[in-house]
Amino acid sequence: MPPHQSAVSVLIQEVLSDPDLAHDDVFRRLLQAGLQDLIDAEATAEIGAGPYERSSKRSNRRNGKRPKKLATTAGEVDLAIPKLRQGSFFPSLLSPRKRVDKALYAVICSAWIEGVSTRKVDDLVRALGNESGTSRSTVSRICKDIDEAVGEFLARPLEHTWFPYLFVDATYVDVRVNHRVVSQALVVATGVSAQGRREILGMAVGDAETTDFWTSFLRSLRERGLRVTTDQDPEGVVLVTSDAHAGIRSAVKAILPGAAWQRCRVHFARNITSRLGSARSKPVNALISTIFAQTSREAVTAQYQHVIDSLHPSFPQVADMLTEAEADLTAFAAFPREHWPKIWSNNPIERLNREIKRRADVVQVFPDRNCVTRLIGAVLLEQHEEWQYGERRYLSKTSLRHLTHTLFQDQHALPDHSTITLNP
Asked: Is 259 left (phi over 0), alpha (psi -120 to 50) or beta?
């Protein structure tokens, strides 16, 4: 709606023409009209078009409104929240500040106070209205509440259930350490519980991806109660899925001795693309993908060998890579067929990784490691709660019963120190 047509403008004209209106009522009505204009403008931006407007950018349509009362210092105001035909809409100006937003606010202010000043941080501080200075005590109070919640979450016991599947991934963030900006590894672990739900299990920030780093991280999960598979009790971690990070395989073998390691098939395909280039890798990756289109353990084994034989004449290096990675790329095949698409790659946590990177990119340079834990920990806590209360089960109860039956009845299905032989 153009400014000259807004509800605020219309109300101002009404007020000017009627001097007998009470001052308090004028302010309340102005506030109500202003808020309604902002809500309608946000809905228009969300939809991509105004009411009855024809636009190629339109992605949704309005479907009426629902009333919302808002208590203000000027009195209660009545607002109308647009409803959408697809999905839901709730204006950001009425939402309480989320934990993640508070964490981001605290980290940005900490960066400003500590002198970690990038153009983006400078712009954000001005947008937040803090260019005149934010006290350490103010930031400290915000940090205290966030740190307590994040700390309790990241240290919570893990023995409350069985996590058969574990996913770990790493990305890098820039952190100021000893007055220098250095790249730090940020590691996140997620698990699928015996109830079929995903949970965030832990995170760590370190100097590099090494065997010691991964060993320390996985050991911390065990110390909090993450169960390990044994011959007597198969209800522990049976599969760890990750990219081929330096040291991860050795760490899994040492700390989770009953678990197999599944090398992420998506990352493996990206490695092929990096080696061959985009054009040459397309038919190669298409052929490799046929391995994952099979429907039985035996068929996976047979197709894997067929792919190696087919690639060897023209792409001997790729054939050698596949030969070396066979046990790791096909570890998924020892588990229930209905689980395969959910466990053979790290794709299920790609959305989480994108959110982490989006938040980290806002800060650009973290003032210290504590700020990394504060912000990313808050992101993880919010995601964990969403998975627990707002998401469908990641794996069905029926398929998990199938997994339990397989592990108890067929001891050959149990992984042997991170190596699974698929030959019958």
From this structure: beta
User: What is the mean pLDDT of each successive set of 10 residues along the chain, which is 424 residues long?
Assistant: 46 51 60 82 88 85 84 71 80 62 58 49 50 54 78 94 94 89 93 94 89 95 94 89 91 94 96 95 97 97 98 96 97 96 90 85 84 88 82 87 78 42 32
Q: Decide if 208 contacts 185 (C-beta within 8 A).
A: yes
- For residues 114, 217, 168 and 149, what is the CA-based torsion angle, rounded to 10 degrees? -50
What tokens were used for 244?
Answer: 């081929």
Beta-bridged to residue 81, according to DSSP, are 66
**Contact between 288 and 322 (Cβ < 8 Å):** yes
Provide the whole-model pTM.
0.70
Dist. CA 39–CA 33, nearest whole Å: 10
SS3 362: helix
* CB-based contacts of 35, cutoff 8 Å, min separation 6: 70, 77, 79, 93
